[in-house]
Amino acid sequence: MKRTFWIFPVIFLCVALPLWLVPAPPEGEEAFSGADGKAESAITDIAPDYTPWFSPLLEPAGGEVESLLFALQAALGAGVIGYWLGVSVTREKQRRERQSASREGPGGDAD
Amino acid sequence: MHIMEGFLPVAHAAGWTLASAPFLAWGLISLRRRLREQPEQRMLLGVAAAFAFILSALKLPSVTGSSSHPTGVGLGAVLFGPLAMVPVGFVILLFQALLLAHGGLTTLGANLFSLGIVGPFVAAGVFRALRGLGASLALGVFLAAALGDLATYLTTSVQLAWAFPDPVGGFAASFAKFAGIFALTQVPLAIVEGLLTVAIFNGLARFNGEELRRLKLLPGQEARA
Fold this sequence. Notes:
Chain A is mainly α. Chain A contains 3 helices and 1 strand. By secondary structure, chain B is mainly α. The longest helix of chain B has 38 residues, at 170-207. Chain B is globular, with a radius of gyration of 17 Å.
């Protein structure tokens, strides 16, 4: 694990640097808007008379609800990873304790 | 990489759905067989699926001034092979299509093809090729995840350029436009995804060495990426 430690500052830089490097967008445009939405407007540029033939069954009621659902998705994943990490650390600790107990030999007091 | 609901012509939507369906069925069959034969892999599979869940929910800012999200399917593709990640990608895309109005049911086939099929297959292929060439485990995992991520976004660009060729420049001009939106934005995010995948892979190598050795990802003795 020691060797992976440098990874996290690099990730942080990759995510944070664009916030400084990218100039502010022109008035009225959202900074760092989603690429999906940009593709959607590119479609309307290329084919102005294309009309979507199906619309989502359920739209999140506003941006706040949408971010709630995205957070929920990430939290579900993070919960599972956290469970795995907890189980793994405990398992490793128990293995180490068992090893040191057996090294003390049957006569030794393991407790 | 989400193509919005209704934003593919009917023929394309149907075509991509038909193209993805056999992979999904094949993926489900192989996943079920794997869990029956090696139930101890359940935890590892859960980690791979959870990793994809987290990463595909994180929209990160990029140097192009737009935001996009990594895919997270590279890890599972390296661990279990690409087929295992098709059902995982399907669940993620279905969740986002139904609850978030991100992507859609009509474009589910096309989106599954880019995120759940091309991405994992490229990741697994890159990993196998690099390991065959003698690259280190860490480099193999990094490039597999990063290139798998990029491949997903290039696929989306191809899908959109195919459906909406430029009236003047045709497919090529249209592809350049969509790739400019998707693939360019994705480059730093692909690097982030590659690094995160290496980090979690190292965790797996430390805590689940036995399982990784059985998957032939680690040599017989204790080793770390």
